[in-house]
Amino acid sequence: IDKKELKIDKLMCYPNPYLTERGNAIFSFEHNKVGEALDVTIDIYNTLGEKIMTLDVHQSNGSTRFDELEWNGQNEFGAALPSGTYIFSATVKDKDGNTTRKSSRLVLIR
Question: What pTM, to 2 d.p., does this model score?
Fold first, then answer.
């Protein structure tokens, strides 16, 4: 990964499929800004494109791997979501304001 431009790679949610009875799902990816503070937002959408949850964190560890956000299979109001396919999108912003975004799918099973 090029060190100048902010990039993320290997975006995933695990476990996938996500069985809610076994705990939380964890979102992870790799990035090229070792030791830099990053603002990370994970937006989760249903298959109609409706945003159902936003998770965010400020990461400041020295690793190239991010795995600090967990999801419990609920929407923003605390309601359990039905089994199905969901889209998650990671938006990452570095200290200089550079932003990148990547999306993937997850399957939720109740």
Answer: 0.90
